[in-house]
Write a structure and sequence with these properties.
Layout: H1 30-58, H2 65-95
Length: about 100
């Protein structure tokens, strides 16, 4: 830099910068955000149903089969969605 040049802001975007497809730099795209919300929702439903199963068993009641099905399906789906987010993040960092 020569004394007559003004300093450039390192956070400003230049013409040659690449942007994240949907949103701010470094922010998640809409698709990734949707998968993130779905993963959290499935994990929440699965954990609440698992807590209901444990509470019912502790109170020596009859467990409703819907809670069992919700925990059987929601927790693995949430895990797979989180793994897909992790793999997508690794691939996007590798490409950049």
């Amino acid at each position: 830099m020569i004394p007559d040049e003004s300093a450039t802001n390192p956070t400003s975007r230049n013409a040659g910068d690449t942007a994240v497809p949907d949103g701010a730099p470094g922010g998640p795209s809409r698709g990734r955000f949707l998968v993130m919300v779905l993963a959290v929702a499935f994990a929440g439903v699965g954990l609440v149903s698992l807590a209901a199963i444990l509470a019912t068993a502790f109170l020596q009641g009859i467990v409703w089969p819907g809670f069992v099905l919700a925990s059987y399906f929601c927790l693995p789906i949430a895990f797979l969605l989180m793994v897909s987010l992790l793999i997508g993040s690794v691939l996007s960092r590798r490409n950049s």
